[in-house]
Amino acid sequence: MDIESVGEDDGAHSDGEFTGVRTSADDESRYACEQYLDALVTIELATKFAMMESRQVNKSIRACWSAIRPRIDNKLNRQIFDGMANQFMPHGALCMLRRQLDAAISEDGDDH
């Protein structure tokens, strides 16, 4: 495990627990998650604007993904959104991604 930074001991944890320890894997995972959310919301906004402006939704989704794809450097995120854009009906795939995210969030919230 690579340690990038270690927080200072504030004396609050007498049991020797470390706080503020970050690993490069944790940072990379968080970055990938934020990148996924950013891409999802960006494409959802493009979809909504296409609907409001009476443009073709599926075509707008594909165009938006083509525009933001170079910024996405996480391989899994690229594969997910490439798959979505290559669907016959990308809007349906986009809605499925949103439903899966919402379900995962609600399941995580139920655990606590």
Can you describe what's shown?
The structure is a single chain. With 112 residues, this protein is mainly alpha-helical. 65% of the residues lie in helices and 4% in strands. The protein is built from four helices and two strands, in the order ββαααα. A two-stranded antiparallel sheet has the order 1-2. Helix 1 (24-52) runs antiparallel to helix 2 (57-68) and helix 1 packs across helix 4.
Layout of strands and helices, then pairs:
Layout: E1 3-5, E2 22-23, H1 24-52, H2 57-68, H3 75-85, H4 90-110
Antiparallel strand pairs: 1-2
Keywords for this entry:
single chain; 4% strand; 112 residues; 4 helices; 65% helix; disordered N terminus; two-stranded antiparallel ribbon; mainly alpha
User: What distance separates the N and C termini?
Assistant: 27 Å
**Main structural class:** mainly alpha
Mean pLDDT across all amino acids: 84
- The main sheet orders its strands as 1-2
What shape does the CA trace take?
globular
Number of helical segments with 4 or more residues? 4
Q: Main β-sheet: number of strands, strand sense, barrel status?
A: 2 strands, antiparallel
Total count of strands: 2
What's the gist of this structure?
Helices cover 65% and strands 4% of the residues.
